[in-house]
Amino acid sequence: MDGTAAGPAQRLVTIVENRPIARDTYVLRLDDPLTASAIRPGQFLMIRPGGENDPLLGRPLALYNVVRDPGGTAVGFEVVYLVIGRGTRALSARRAGERLSIWGPLGNGFGPPPAGGAVVFVAGGIGQTPFLALGGWWLGRESCGGVSYAGAAAHSATLLYGVRTSELAAGIEDFERAGIAVEVATDDGSLGRRGYVTDLLRRRLEGGARPGKVVGCGPPPMLSALARMAREYDLDCDVSLENHMACGYGACFSCVAPIVQQGGGTDLRRVCVEGPVFGAAAVDWSA
Ligand SMILES: Cc1cc2nc3c(=O)[nH]c(=O)nc-3n(C[C@H](O)[C@H](O)[C@H](O)COP(=O)(O)OP(=O)(O)OC[C@H]3O[C@@H](n4cnc5c(N)ncnc54)[C@H](O)[C@@H]3O)c2cc1C
Ligand code: FES
Predict the structure, then answer these.
(1) What are phi and psi of 233, to 5 degrees?
(2) Domains parsed from the chain with CATH numbers
(3) Nearest to 26, CA basis, from 66, 78, 69
(4) Can you give the pLDDT of all 287 residues of the chain as single tens digits?
């Protein structure tokens, strides 16, 4: 079950494809067997969007999917990104065959699944991206970074996915193909149930569901609500934080989050090194 993940490296890799899959949302596939065989779900890459120096800094994007050849060898990986500013806009203009500078794999990634238990992923906005690879890994279908949970897999995986409107829903069929059930909530009721994604979780919990693990990724108010619900129902819950990042390797402290320490009190921790995955109860949501 165990394996040794390689450390982060900087390299130039070739774009295989970069295509829209929803409004302002793209899947970027990169040809990179080294990263693909080392990276684990929950880890991310700093991807420098521009060709030369503009923008200079990389942008953190989570592993979406490991790409394998017909023999099962990891040959590349995909990220899915939402265009929100200068970096992601520049990235959306890059074309297949061009080269990109990447740095990774970075961050701690997710731990093991609850063997035999049900897992529920709670995603808001573009927060679904870490959960495709994670679902395949925890269901024992995929080995990632040399680690397989085939003998201690989760029993089932469900993605609760909240977006503002149906046009922003990205990759639902990818999750279903991977054996992950999907339930959607939209603010405007254009897809799935109208309301917040945390309402979907509350309905399940009120109906008696007791997942072995809940994992959240999305905007801070959603994660804070999720953490409160996890406490109320005594759920094992992790969150993957998406704080702004500049360096990605622990030097600039631009990404810090307030984390409750074991002996009490709160200290700032770097999301790029000590995270992005933290226990929901460890994050000081009041800060
Ligand atoms: C570990 C990690 C994994 C991530 N994975 C993904 C992913 O898989 N897909 C994806 O689309 N995005 C992901 N993000 C967020 C992504 O890195 C940012 O959206 C991106 O860096 C924005 O760059 P930009 O140059 O386009 O926007 P900028 O020009 O830098 O910013 C545009 C606007 O968005 C705001 N903004 C920028 N970054 C963030 C942020 N992280 N949170 C809230 N507001 C922000 C800025 O304040 C500004 O108002 C991840 C972030 C982290 C830390
Ligand atoms: S991004 Fe520089 S320390 Fe985390």
Answers:
(1) -100, 5
(2) 9-106 (2.40.30.10), 118-241 (3.40.50.80)
(3) 78
(4) 333 445 788 999 999 999 999 999 999 999 999 999 999 999 999 999 986 666 778 999 999 999 999 999 999 999 999 999 999 999 999 999 999 999 999 999 999 999 889 999 999 999 999 999 999 999 999 999 999 999 999 999 999 999 999 999 999 999 999 999 999 999 999 999 999 999 999 999 999 999 999 999 999 999 999 999 999 999 999 999 999 999 999 999 999 999 999 888 999 999 999 999 999 999 999 87
The structure tokens listed for 84 are 């929100």
Name every residue whose Cβ is closer than 8 Å to that of residue 262 and which is 6 or more positions away in sequence. Answer: none
Please name the residue that has the structure tokens 């990447």.
102
∠ Cα 184 113 268 (to 5°): 85
Residue 201 near residue 226, CB atoms below 8 Å: yes
Residue recorded with tokens 């731990």? 111
C-alpha 12/C-alpha 237 separation (Å) is 36
Residue nearest to atom 32 of ligand 1 (CA): 85
Between the CA of 256 and the centroid of ligand 2 the distance, in Å, is 7
Beta bridge partners of 213: 119
Residue nearest to ligand 1 atom 31, measured at CA: 85
Which ligand neighbours the alpha carbon of 241 most closely?
A: 1
CA angle 146, 59, 248 (to 5 degrees): 65
* Triad 150, 71, 30: Cα angle to 5°: 95
Nearest CA to ligand 1 atom 53: 242
> pTM of the prediction?
0.95
